Amino acid sequence: MEKKIIRLKEVDSTNTFLKNLDTYDEDALTVAVADYQTAGRGQGVHTWESEPGKNLLFSMMMCPKWVPLRQQFLLSEAGALAVKDALDSYTDGITLKWPNDVYWYDKKISGTLIETAIDSKGIKRCIFGIGIDVNQTEFHSDAPNPVSLAQILGHEVDREEVLQKVIEAFCKYYELLRRADYMDVSGLYHLSLYRRKGYHWYEDKDGKFEGAFVEVEDDGHLILHDKKGVIRSYAFGEIKFLIPSVNIKQ
Q1: What gap in Å lies between CA 181 and CA 178, rounded to an integer?
Q2: Which of 37, 82, 124, 193 has a 20 to 30 A CA-CA distance from 206?
């Protein structure tokens, strides 16, 4: 897969930059990487805190028209696995927190914002906006549990090296999807999940409860069962993972 990388000193959002491109190669992976984003976004209403020149802020755009619309969550799985593969080469303890955050033990090291354009034929275009905390060592936002590679390793890391590792890993998983090897990608995603085993604390609209992982469905819904054996299904934004550093009370 051909790769085209656009390097930016500063931009409002790399996702927005790619969406506004007048022309692009639908058969290539187009990547926009910036030293700083003035309006970097996370999921929902969240923003992404990043010190200029310290972290990895980039977006990848592709046109996977051959992915079935009902299984588009496979793209999210491929993107999350690519970041995990890259970070695995530096440290252990890397897992994927549903739907597409990347954790080092109980701390968040990376997040992804995915924007998909759909037409009458299916998926037209997909953009992954990825933030990886690489060399920042102080965080000032209200994010409860950020961590960077530099904090984990005790020294700074070459951001370009991390970027190239993510891109290469993503191309590997993207090719698996192109060959319709969906179970390979989905299986690896499930094996890599944060809190895959045992009961853990969560919170939904009805309050806090202990639940155990069952599966992530093809459409991306998270399935848990509680200690009463009740099966619970959640779309993104409907459940909160209560991390150990939070004072959890029954």
Answers
A1: 8
A2: 193
Q: Report the candidate in 30, 47, 48, 38 with the shortest Cα–Cα distance to residue 10.
A: 38
Q: Within this chain, do residues 140 and 20 fall inside the same structural domain, yes or no?
A: yes
Residue type for 237, please? G
- Per-residue pLDDT tens digits for 107-130: 999 999 999 999 988 999 999 999
In a domain, 133, yes or no: yes
**Domain of residue 34, residue span:** 2-192
Q: What is the pTM of this model?
A: 0.93
Pair 132, 229 in one domain: no
- The dihedral sign for the CA sequence 148, 154, 156, 160: negative
Tell me the three state secondary structure of residue 114. Answer: strand
Please say whether the beta carbons of 31 and 4 come within 8 A: yes
**pLDDT attached to residue 52:** 85
**Residue 117's pLDDT is what?**
95
Q: How confident is the model at residue 40 (pLDDT cuts 50, 70, 90)?
A: low
Q: b or e along 139-173 (b: 16 or more beta carbons within 10 Å of the residue's beta carbon)?
A: beeebebbbbbbbbeeeebebeebbebbbebbbeb
Residues 216 and 161 grouped into a single domain = no
